[in-house]
Amino acid sequence: MLLPFNEWRHVFKLDPAKPIDDASLQAIATSGTDAILVGGTDDITLDATLDLLMRLRRYPVAVALEISELEAATMGFDTYLTPTVLNAGTLEYVVEKQVEALEQVGHMLAHADLVGEGYIVLNPDAKVAHVTQAKPLTLDETVAYAQLADSVFRLPVVYLEYSGVYGEPERVAAVRDVLKQARLFYGGGIDSEERAREMLQYADTIVVGNVIYEDLKAALATVAATR
Ligand code: 1GP
């Protein structure tokens, strides 16, 4: 059975711009992960996205698209995650990109499962932080952003994004404490079962990205943390 987003504990994030061979893709898709999230920050093309989708469809695992690149939005995914970067330094990444995307492909996704993600970008060196000019946040500010996303905007997902580095468990725990309805996604630097297990104490869902391309065995080992 393909799990809906609110039941995911472990997710692998695949970047269509990064090549992955069939054996590695099979290992990821049959690892016991709850979903594969297709998304990346740049050079995302429709062809690469469709290619990855088609290859993933051989396996009984939920496949979701994170709509960050308008050009790559296509039918066929189980779920569509629409990110808004709450601490972006420019309105472009809070609402403008989303409006632009919905203007273009909203009709196509009218019956699709669209899930809003409130990103809080916490690694100032990450590509996504540069692109969105993300404002650095203290712990208290992070908690306030999370509360805004959850209790005021009622977003279904709050995503603590440390992309590229392992985050501070205390901060994830503090956010956990204020959330009432949103699912807490954590992503960044998970490259071992221990780290996966640590963040799963606080996050509902962990997202594992980079390590897939650096050390496949280590990536696969993170799945065991959900058991
Ligand atoms: C990236 O949150 C994900 O968007 C995962 O981060 O690539 O550091 O695993 P890593």
Automatic annotation (TrEMBL):
Enzyme class: transferase
Keyword Transferase among record annotations: yes
HAMAP family assigned to the protein according to its UniProt record, in alphabetical order: GGGP_HepGP_synthase (MF_00112)
Cofactor: Mg(2+)
Residues binding Mg(2+), per UniProt: D15, T41
EC annotation from Swiss-Prot or TrEMBL: 2.5.1.n9
Keyword Lipid metabolism: yes
UniProt-annotated binding residues for sn-glycerol 1-phosphate: K13, Y159, L160, E161, Y162, S163, G164, G189, G209, N210
Pathway: Membrane lipid metabolism; glycerophospholipid metabolism
GO biological process: glycerophospholipid biosynthetic process
Membership in a protein family: Belongs to the GGGP/HepGP synthase family. Group I subfamily.
Protein's name according to its UniProt entry: Heptaprenylglyceryl phosphate synthase
Alphabetized Gene3D superfamilies for the sequence: FMN-linked oxidoreductases
Organism: Exiguobacterium indicum
Oligomer status and interactors: Homodimer.
